[in-house]
Design a protein that fits this description.
The complex is a heterodimer of chains A (158) and B (400). Chain A has 158 residues and is mainly alpha-helical. Helices cover 46% and strands 0% of the residues of chain A. Chain A contains five helices and no strands. Chain A has helices at residues 2-8, 13-16, 47-56, 69-112, 119-125. By secondary structure, chain B is α+β, with helices and mostly antiparallel strands. Chain B is built from 13 helices and ten strands. In chain B, the strands form two sheets. Chain B has a six-stranded mixed β-sheet with strand order 3-10-9-5-6-8. A four-stranded antiparallel β-sheet of chain B has the order 2-1-4-7. The chains are: A mainly alpha (158), B alpha+beta (400). At the A-B interface, helix 4 of A face helix 1, helix 6 and helix 8 of B.
Chain lengths: 158, 400
């Protein structure tokens, strides 16, 4: 057992080291002691601050954007144009949806007054078959099968 | 984002304009130096681009009467004229904000320019609508409401037309602007509300100027106070030597138009020994100060003529008093010009009541500032110089 631990020592340094040899916690070297200040057993700062430091100064974290004024102005201009373009696209899409909705509504109104007793209108607004577009194969994939065992034995391809 | 924005911008450029220019530009990988016209760059360099008014008046809606002359309140989009002058002089083309040779940036400029043209069309439409309402609608409160809301919408559109312009941002950031254009008024107001106004409100509230002198203050104009040329941050404790001479005051309203204001400096911390309390004192009262969005100086060099109702009384604080607050109140005279002689005969320094003054003279506070004074090394000399008694007395707290 002790041999195994010794072989591990190179990798896990804190396993075999006696307690007294633990790396000394960071202690204030100033002579005046601040009363009432708690000494944390680990030493150092608040873990939340440590976490922020870790993520802010991690080598994989990209450096903050530091631009000269003109470069920042170009960046800003491009950003504004891009936002404008996106907003225009969004508005166009909304207007198109609105146009389609209005068109459907007008068509239904016309079907209502066409003089066939409302038959075509009823067919148009019936919700039969709704939600089964594309058949069973287009079910939204999920992590686990459905409640009914995940297999519809009564299903027949039409 | 840059790569995505670049491809998407090029895509949208392809959508909005089927001009061969952008395709050639991409293919050659070169950057054109002309961002304003679709003509070849050689022509563009030699012929001046048409003034913006020609561009915009041609795009008038057909079902409406001919639009009024172009909004001269919009910021100029480009500095091409200067550019050309420079070319004539030196034979070289100067680098400007509009011709910086970066492909994505140039594409972005095209997008923004197209959007601006659309906004200008909207502005003209709105102007024509306002004209029509003004001519056809019956007089009455309803018409005023309609016109007010339409004008507000028009102002918004004018801001929207310029807010994406890098030239405008550059001018604003470098301080090279005046408040004659709506866009600069908007930007200046936004900047003031971001830091200066909250700071002022914090000082006024923490030092209890707000419930002590007036029940509430909603500043809409920036007030800049200078003693001996030094700009004073609100709430600072100033040395008595500095405050011995009157300050100069700038009032910066962010709405257009001429205004008449009254400026008062009130001290709410004068000890009142008879009642074992504190009372007010008026230190300075100047009425009928004309200011506007283009003329900010209310008092000081370059200020227009105004009526001093009460001369500046040197602020003093006796020994033993912690400090005294001096509130500068800028009040708009909503009833027009005040009668200076009448005020001179009626206003008294001692126990000055700001609220009743405001109510009697129809004044409304549009801006405020404050500073503090305390007993310091120079205070005795200042009091002796100005014949103010009390420099040899000290206040002590009495335990009861």
């Amino acid at each position: 057992m002790s041999r195994i631990l010794q072989s591990l020592q190179g990798y896990v340094p804190s396993l075999l080291r006696p307690i007294s040899q633990k790396p000394a916690s960071r202690v204030s070297t100033s002579i005046t002691q601040v009363r009432g200040k708690k000494k944390s057993s680990r030493g150092g700062k608040d873990p939340r601050i440590q976490l922020i430091h870790y993520s802010l100064y991690h080598p994989l974290t990209p450096r903050p954007l530091k631009f000269s004024y003109l470069r920042h102005l170009r960046h800003w201009t491009i950003h504004r144009a891009w936002q404008l373009y996106k907003a225009n696209m969004r508005r166009e899409r909304e207007l198109e949806l609105e146009r389609m909705y209005n068109s459907i509504r007008d068509s239904c109104e016309k079907l209502k007054t066409i003089g066939d007793g409302g038959r075509l209108y009823r067919i148009a607004i019936s919700k039969q078959g709704l939600g089964q577009w594309g058949g069973i194969g287009t079910r939204i994939p999920t992590e686990a099968p459905g409640r009914n065992g995940g297999w519809d034995y009564t299903y027949k391809n039409q | 984002m840059a790569a995505a924005g670049r491809t998407a911008l090029s895509a949208c450029l392809r959508q909005i304009s089927s001009r061969p220019q952008s395709a050639a530009l991409r293919a050659a990988g070169a950057v054109r130096f002309n961002s304003t016209s679709a003509a070849p760059s050689a022509d563009a360099a030699s012929t001046p681009p048409p003034p913006p008014s020609d561009v915009t008046t041609s795009a008038a809606p057909k079902d409406l009467p001919p639009p009024p002359p172009l909004v001269d309140e919009l910021a100029s989009q480009h500095m091409e004229y200067e550019d050309l002058k420079f070319k004539v002089q030196t034979g070289r083309r100067r680098r400007t904000l509009e011709n910086m040779p970066f492909e994505t940036y140039q594409m972005a400029l095209q997008v923004l320019k197209k959007d601006r043209e659309e906004k200008i069309k909207k502005i003209q439409l709105e102007q024509a609508r306002i004209e029509r309402v003004r001519e056809t609608m019956e007089e009455g409160p309803e018409k005023d409401t309609v016109l007010r809301s339409m004008t507000r919408k028009l102002d918004e559109l004018k801001v929207f037309a310029d807010i994406n312009n890098p030239r405008v941002k550059f001018n604003f950031d470098t301080g090279n602007y005046t408040l004659d254009k709506p866009i600069y008024r908007y930007l200046a107001d936004r900047k003031w509300r971001a830091l200066k106004r909250p700071t002022l409100m914090q000082r006024l509230e923490q030092m209890n100027v707000v419930p002590d002198i007036v029940p509430s203050i909603n500043p809409v104009a920036d007030v800049e106070l200078r003693f001996s040329g030094a700009v004073i941050q609100p709430g600072r404790i100033l040395s008595s030597g500095l405050t011995e001479k009157r300050p100069t005051i700038k009032v910066i309203p962010f709405t257009p138009g001429e205004k008449l204001v009254t400026i008062a400096v009130v001290n709410p911390d004068v000890p009142d020994l008879e009642n074992d309390s504190f009372t007010y004192q008026l230190h300075w009262l100047v009425s009928n100060v004309p200011i506007s969005h283009l003329h900010h100086q209310a008092i000081g060099t370059g200020a227009q003529k105004s009526d001093t109702i009460m001369e500046y009384l040197v602020p003093t604080v006796q020994k033993g008093i912690k400090y005294a607050r001096f509130a500068v109140l800028v009040m708009e005279q909503e009833g027009g010009k005040l009668d200076a002689e009448m005020l001179k005969s009626k206003v008294v320094r001692e126990r000055f009541n700001t609220r009743s003054f405001m109510a009697k003279n129809k004044c409304e506070i549009i801006g405020a500032h404050m500073w503090r004074n305390s007993w310091d090394e120079q205070m005795k000399d200042v009091m002796i110089r100005n014949n103010i008694p009390g420099w040899d007395k000290m206040f002590k707290r009495v335990r009861d």
